[in-house]
Amino acid sequence: MAVGQEVRTKISSIKNTQKITRAMEMVAASKMRKTQERMQSSRPYSDKMWQIIQHLSHANPAYRHPFMVHKNVESIGVLVITSDRGLCGGLNSNLFRKLLKQIRGWEEQGKKVKLGIIGRKGVAYFANIGGESIAQVTQIGDQPGLTDIVGVIQVMLDAYTDDGVQQIHLAYNDFINTMVQEPTIKQLLPIDSTDANAELEHHWDYIYEPDPEQVLDNLLIRYAESIIYQSVLENNASEQAARMVAMKSASDNAGKLIDELQLVYNKARQAAITQEIAEIVAGAAAVQ
Amino acid sequence: MAATMKVDIVSAEESLYSGEAEMLFAPATLGEIGIAPRHTPLITSLVAGELRIKHLEGPDESMFITGGILEVQPHLVTVLSDVAKREKDLDENAAQQAKERAAQAMQDTSDKINYAKAQAEFMTAIAELRTIEKLKSRKSK
């Protein structure tokens, strides 16, 4: 007797899906721990770098490095950092939504936007909606090294130096904690000194050794690289955390669905048995 | 009481030191420099060598860095180093081996880029050995 055959097939298929999502959840959890460690270990460096650059932007240097000069903005370069793989909840789409809004705003002001994209999701998205991309890199893996992304960084910085773009922004997911990842867009170049500190607002300059050009060239390239690299690590940790949470809720939902279907199945089975008994009793009664 | 300043030392991998110090000695490109509190703002690049923190009390603290950047604000000194090792993590044998490896790589002059890299490694290894020597002699005094 095949009572509720369809329901039973459905239950077993959902159980299989649940197994997969649960496995992915566990993989993401262990990867998250690693990516988080990497992110946290390099955070002090980029934080301090950011701090030095902030100090520097308040100084009145005799030599002004191109990275520090604010020009009339015609084109804006945006370095978008996304994940390679999907199934990580709304991580990428949240970032795209925020970025798109920002890009519209820029375009209304008549500024052109050029994109540098890290990650397959970003490449696919902007190939779909259109957008001028000047550099792309995908498949940087779970443990990206600086060498994996240095090409893209170079293209963006070259575009800036050659006056192809007059500003560079970074778009990525900032890792706040496991549950919260914040889509973030921040200006990388030129160095922004908007959050002016009144205390530092008098005329002073550093002493440079050996000379300003060498020191600043060295410093600012490192600045760009370390901030971008840190953003990649943040995005990576965000991806794993988002995937873990998404897969956990998928497993939970599958569990709920299985419970509901099991109830439907049991009811159908019970009804079939009751009906059968009723039929037998009715048959017996008719014979008598 | 002597004045102190805040010193932050970070490498690409971790934060090595954060706290007060009376003075800081660092291997700048143009030679070793000492930074005392209220030093005028300064930015300099660093080469491989010893970084020494002088505490108000107790013995000095040393570490080895392979290069980086030093920023000085009157009450705040920040060192961004590429790679840094604490005194206890320094290994003379490993440094010696690295030096020999680099010296060997320099013999192989078939590739220009490799040569430059090997030379840089060689200089770093020598600086590390010198740091170890210095620390040893200071201790034996």
Give a verbal description of the structure:
The complex is a heterodimer of chains A (288) and B (141). Chain A is an alpha/beta fold and 288 residues long. Chain A has two domains: 64 residues, Helix Hairpins; 190 residues, Pyruvate Kinase, Chain: A, domain 1 (3-Layer(aba) Sandwich), CATH 3.40.1380. Chain A is 60% helix and 14% strand. Chain A has a five-stranded mixed sheet, with helices on both faces. In chain A, helix 1 runs antiparallel to helix 5 and helix 4 packs across helix 5. The model of chain A has no long low-confidence stretch (mean pLDDT 88). Chain B is an alpha+beta fold and 141 residues long. Chain B has two domains: 83 residues, ATP Synthase, domain 1 (Sandwich); 51 residues, Up-down Bundle (Single alpha-helices involved in coiled-coils or other helix-helix interfaces). Chain B is 32% helix and 40% strand. In chain B, a hairpin with a 6-residue loop joins strand 6 and strand 7. In chain B, helix 1 packs antiparallel against helix 2. The relative contact order of chain B is 0.17. Classes of the chains: A alpha/beta (288), B alpha+beta (141). The interface between A and B is medium-sized, with 25 and 22 residues.
Helix/strand layout:
The complex is a heterodimer of chains A (288) and B (141).
Chain A: H1 5-58, E1 75-81, H2 91-108, E2 112-118, H3 120-129, E3 132-137, H4 146-161, E4 167-175, E5 181-189, E6 207-209, H5 212-287
Parallel strand pairs in A: 1-2, 1-4, 2-3
Antiparallel strand pairs in A: 4-5
Helix pairs in contact in A: 1-5, 4-5
Chain B: E1 5-11, E2 15-21, E3 23-28, E4 31-35, E5 42-46, E6 49-54, E7 61-65, E8 68-73, E9 76-81, E10 84-86, H1 92-107, H2 112-140
Helix pairs in contact in B: 1-2
